[in-house]
Amino acid sequence: LVTGVQTCALPICVRARLAPLVGGWRRADAGFFRGRYPVTVDRCICMDVSFEDIKNRAEGEGLDLEGVKDEMGCGGACGMCVPYLKLVLKTGETVLPILDADTYKALASE
User: Taking the CB of residue 46, how many other CB atoms lie within 10 A of it?
Assistant: First the structure.
């Protein structure tokens, strides 16, 4: 852990290829390519929709998770953002740290 944020466990060769493509993973410090860097998630990558946009639309239209999936497609493709969407809808936070495995599994199974 670096400053309380989960670091990415992907091999550096994978991170180097994904970094320019994945808008939801932001470079958080100069240690980006040193093998350990804190990252955040701020969007559904499959649909390229920010959590901010999802939160605003969910609040404006009264959408729950199923409504977000149906209306926006987020959470319905690969499904990796579903635990994050649950947190966005529950807390209103739109920039989230990478979840540790136990937290991710717990949220995914709710």
Answer: 15
